[in-house]
Amino acid sequence: MNYPVCSAASILAKVKREQEVKKIKKKCGDIGPGYPAHPKTRKFVAENWEKYPDIFRKTWSTYKKLTQPKFQKKIMDY
Question: Would you say the pTM of this structure is higher than 0.70?
Fold first, then answer.
């Protein structure tokens, strides 16, 4: 192990992330694992971003891609 401090920090961050995901699951139900490429997580975001706006990081590209169509103007809007 070349960088034990970085390794320890990585483990602590992973543990903290899992704790936070458990809290969200308790509040919102099955959200999947919380990773952007996971189909269950993407489905949850697409179906619940308006219901639970406080749990999403608005700068997350998955959030932006799934919510953008609602805010995008259509040709008939002009």
Answer: yes
